[in-house]
Design brief:
The complex is a heterodimer.
Chain A (H helix, E strand, L loop, with lengths): L2 E6 L8 H14 L3 E6 L23 H5 L7 E5 H6 L12 E3 L1 H9 L3 E4 L1
Parallel strand pairs in A: 1-2, 1-5, 2-3, 3-4
Chain B lengths: L1 E4 L8 H8 L5 E4 L12 H4 L1 H4 L4 E5 H6 L10 E4 L1 H10 L3 E4 L1
Parallel strand pairs in B: 1-2, 1-5, 2-3, 3-4
The chains are: A alpha/beta, B alpha/beta.
């Protein structure tokens, strides 16, 4: 089993990155790998509660984050600095996450076998 | 003139350049990932809070809702729908999309 980290740094909907990351995460989980998702910079916006996409006609993929534990993907990490810069707290997020400092996030990244960037 | 910005202010400098060039009295419409710049959590760092006094600032409400930011627009920003977007374009003699 390898340690895979998915680094999410983009806001949802404006680009395809957030959705593509989720797709690959689900594939990796199917192969029983050790999967971590991390959210830094605008990536923290992916987890914001209350996304309502009817008006823009795009599928609301934020609900998928809540289903991840059903695929044994339970390691979600958010960088404290990125959240603070955007005026967000854990209470604004739609799933339970572990909040890490930049230094902690850097050390977690350094111990991975594979790091994929979105 | 109408200025349209669609990129996050923390990912690109589109909004920054727009705010630097936009003349007093111009209109600024934020859409897609640029809407975060007009929210209570982002308006100070994005420069929109400081620009509201000299620009008419609008945000595209469907994009605001998609991103879970309904009700979080900073005071002084007007929410508009797609029809309002069309009206803005029609009302102004020209526009610039800061891609």
């Amino acid at each position: 089993m390898k340690k895979f980290m998915f680094v999410n740094r983009k806001a949802p909907y404006g680009t395809i990155y957030a959705l593509e990351s989720l797709e690959v995460v689900l594939i990796a989980a199917t192969f029983d790998q050790d999967v971590s998702l991390v959210f830094i910079d605008d990536g923290v916006y992916e987890l914001v509660k209350g996304q309502e996409t009817k008006g823009v006609g795009i599928k609301n993929h934020s609900k998928t984050y809540r289903a991840l534990d059903g695929y044994d993907v339970e390691k979600l990490y958010v960088e404290r600095e990125s959240m603070a810069m955007r005026g967000l707290t854990e209470a604004d997020l739609l799933v339970p996450v572990e909040v890490l400092s930049s230094a902690e996030m850097g050390s977690l990244m350094a111990e991975q076998d594979v790091v994929l960037s979105f | 003139m109408l200025h349209i910005v669609n990129k996050s202010h923390t990912q690109t400098n589109s909004l920054q350049s727009c705010l630097r060039l936009a003349q007093a009295g111009a209109a600024l419409l934020v859409i897609e990932d640029a809407i975060y710049a007009a929210t209570t959590g982002g308006a100070a760092s994005s420069g929109i809070a400081g620009a509201i006094a000299r620009l008419k600032v609008y945000a595209l409400q469907p994009d605001v809702e998609a991103r879970g930011m309904a009700g979080k627009l900073v005071e002084g920003v007007t929410a508009i729908d797609y029809a309002g977007f069309v009206d803005l374009v029609a009302e102004h003699t020209n526009n610039q999309s800061w891609l």
